[in-house]
# Entry
Amino acid sequence: MSYYKFNMTLQIHLLDFKEIPLDVLLSNKFLSNIDKRSFEKFTNIDVKKEKIVSTIFKNKYVGDYYLNDRGKPLSESKYFNISHSYGVIVYVEANNHVGIDIEKIREVDEDLINYISSDVEKSYIKNEKNFYEVWTNKEALSKSIGSGINKKIKDIPGLPLNSVIKYEGKKFVNKTISYLDYIITVSLMGEAQFDLEIIKDLAKSYSYEYKDHHSITKVIIGK
# Structure
């Protein structure tokens, strides 16, 4: 079945929450009291903030969802996926299986490159940016198919970039973009081509004083 018959744009909702205080996040109107109690078990502040923001995004953009046996959030009305890295969270939705991964570009160990990369991928990787391009392609594709990276990671294709990739008898279109010092990849099942558009939530809209929690600024990337 073909879900799209035209070139489309997938919107990536993005929030940089590094500077948003914990108590401000906990006061967000998209959190229930049950949600808030569920965060009490997390003692690491960064991990707690990631869990809070992830829940805010799911409640805000998805609504009703449930967790499968792998703990992956799913909806009966839409396909969506969420990822976060070093204080930035991204969310994407589509009407076919979709995965997204974001990674902050940072120092990478040679052993990790050898562990995750095929020979072709190792030849491509010349710096940290290249590594996270390959990594996010593997991760987004595995999330789109629903398996997660629980198989031999070298067998999950991380190249070519911005192309149709065949994996486990299915086809996926992967698109990779840069955002500041982060790499983001979206993987959509099928062969439909798409552009990416980043919709950036304003961090100040999460403050006590700011009443409009829906305020966003739009950044067009990928066309």
The longest strand covers residues 170-179. The chain has one domain: 8-220. The first helix runs from residue 22 to 26. The CA atoms of residues 67 and 73 lie 4 Å apart.
